[in-house]
Design a protein that fits this description.
Length: 330
């Protein structure tokens, strides 16, 4: 993966610095007053900072990963992003620690599915729209499970065992062909899309980057480990039915079994994962860390709210006959 094209003063300045030898950064350009969820420049800068902890960039020296001045910039970007999330997503009401699993389930079940993108893809979307959806999701699914794996060394006991059980399935039980990221690559190839890692970073808008950036922010900070577990539980709780719809929608559009395998795998696996995530992982973590039980619910709220905002953005553009992707190569 190479650095994507800049989208504003911060990324123009930052990317010019990153392609040189690591050094102390000067003060960054001022942040835009725009909402961070719609700020392409801020979200792309955060994405680039985080990506150095995953696969990195061909044109960026790996020594930048732990450069103190770059970490300082990342912290300022995160502070703005996190503060906005706190404004948009108020903390869920406090509940007794032992009621955390039930509160998670109720939080998810209270979400309105009326504007669900899954229903549209199942019944109505054309092939170009389905391909666009896959492009959006590729930034996460090609590294699926990696953000949540950061939590493993930060847990102990039952919560750690439960997370490892979930992640082992995400990574195909040690078989490359069954890794969920590899199954998604097969879906991309079947749709005539470029399945290389990060190929569409230039095409996705700020809200798509924000969905992934929230995962990375929770994953890369030990203090956010409760939110990370709640985020994962929300993904598992909201996975089976939408993935069934994605599979049926792709079948309607001519997708064969190999193209749909990624979605079919999630229908089965996540029906089991949701029980492990809610009870064995989040429930056990809340009991062991009662002071962080609220973070678990907040992480889940962030997951479902950002996904709803992403779906609203895409559906609004599709409803007006426009593409949901940015103009560019790919």
């Amino acid at each position: 993966m190479w650095l994507p094209s800049p989208r504003g003063p911060i990324t123009t300045w930052l990317f010019a610095e990153l392609v040189t030898a690591p050094h102390a950064l000067d003060e960054a350009p001022p942040f835009s007053p725009e909402s961070p969820l719609a700020d392409d420049d801020l979200q792309l800068a955060l994405f680039a900072c985080y990506e150095l902890h995953y696969q990195g960039f061909e044109d960026v020296d790996d020594l930048w990963e732990w450069n103190a001045s770059l970490l300082g910039l990342r912290a300022r970007l995160e502070e703005r992003f996190a503060a906005h999330l706190a404004d948009v997503i108020p903390p869920p009401p406090a509940v007794p620690v032992e009621d955390t699993p039930q509160a998670l389930v109720e939080l998810i079940s209270s979400q309105d599915e009326g504007a669900s993108i899954a229903i549209f893809l199942h019944r109505t979307a054309d092939l170009d729209q389905f391909r666009e959806f896959v492009v959006h999701r590729s930034l996460y699914h090609l590294k699926e499970a990696d953000p949540h794996t950061w939590a493993i060394p930060r847990l102990r006991g039952p919560a750690k065992a439960a997370l490892v059980e979930i992640q082992a399935d995400e990574y195909g039980g040690g078989r490359v062909c069954r890794m969920h990221s590899e199954l998604f690559r097969a879906t991309m190839r079947s749709l005539g899309l470029d399945d290389s890692y990060g190929a569409y970073a230039d095409r996705v808008p700020a809200i798509t980057l924000a969905v992934g950036n929230a995962m990375s922010m929770f994953g890369l900070h030990r203090r956010h480990r409760g939110a990370l577990l709640g985020h994962l539980a929300a993904l598992e709780l909201t996975s089976s039915l939408p993935n069934h719809r994605y599979s049926q929608g792709l079948r309607r559009l001519g997708g064969d079994a190999a193209a749909r395998r990624f979605y079919d795998e999630h229908v089965q696996a996540d029906a089991v994962h949701e029980q492990i995530a809610v009870n064995d992982m989040c429930g056990a973590f809340a009991v062991a860390h009662p002071d962080l039980a609220g973070d678990v619910l907040y992480g889940a709220a962030c997951a479902v709210t950002l996904d709803r905002l992403f779906a609203e953005h895409v559906m609004r553009l599709w409803g007006s006959g426009r593409t949901s992707l940015r103009a560019g190569a790919g």
